[in-house]
Amino acid sequence: QYRMSLGYGLDHHLSAFIDGSEAGRKMQDDKDDSALFFVDEGLADPNRMAMFGWSYGGYASLVAASRTPQLYQCTIAGAAVSDYVMASNDEFRRTPDGIARIWRDVYEYGAVQPVDEAEKVNVPVLLIHGSVDSRVLPKQAKVYRDALDKAGKYYQYVELEGADHFSNTLFFNHQLELYESLIGFLQNDCGQMSAQTSAAN
After folding, report:
1. 134 domain residue, yes or no
2. Cα 186 vs. chain centroid, distance in angstroms?
3. Range of the domain at 160
4. Cis previous bond, 69, omega within 30
5. DSSP category for residue 162
6. How many CA atoms lie within 13 A of 12 on its CB side?
7. Other CB atoms within 10 Å distance of the CB of residue 33
8. Which of 23, 30, 49, 50 is the most core-located residue (most Cβ within 10 A)?
């Protein structure tokens, strides 16, 4: 079962926080294991897999973009944290100091920081963020885009004007822009790096 899942006992839940945090490490392995299970069962084509996530799932999608060996043809990250230290510092402004300090300690000492992994990105990335997201501030997308630009990596960015953090509160116009962008990215960009690598070889 996925680390940090509820309902499997305290030890299983706490296995996500070994040495600070397993975010982007063993927790990411669990996601990859799930994808490989579907491949082994004949339910997924290993040459047509993508990772799409929102909020923490968006963070996981950013982590997936820089992993090797690479299982996915592209990743799509919505409302994603790219820098947990920055995010925990933002938390100090709106939560009790003790709670924010716990989260900073958890992620600063163990979790993979996608913004520090930009040079390792090896698949196309689609970033999506609401312009008024107050849970994960839009600057999280900005610092990650800056890191990708510096590393010369391919990505697309969609900012949903007037959208907040939660995918289930998006208005119709946000949903239309989101899904049109997502479909277009999957059709036209997903797998392009893999195709270029194969041609080069």
Report:
1. yes
2. 16
3. 47-191
4. yes
5. T
6. 9
7. 10
8. 23
Q: What is the side-by-side strand order in the sheet with 74-78?
A: 50-54, 74-78, 125-130, 155-160
Q: Is residue 91 situated within a structural domain?
A: yes
Q: Which residues contact 153 (CB under 8 A, 6 or more apart)?
A: 118, 119, 121, 125
Answer whether residue 116 is part of any domain: yes
Question: Is residue 40 helix, strand or coil?
Answer: helix
Helix (H) or strand (E) holding 174: helix 172-188
Total domains, the chain? 1
Could you tell me the CATH number of the domain that includes residue 67? 3.40.50.1820
84: tokens are 């947990």
Q: Report which residue type is found at 7.
A: G
In a domain, 7, yes or no: no
pLDDT tens figures, 38-83: 999 999 999 999 999 998 889 999 999 999 889 999 999 999 989 8
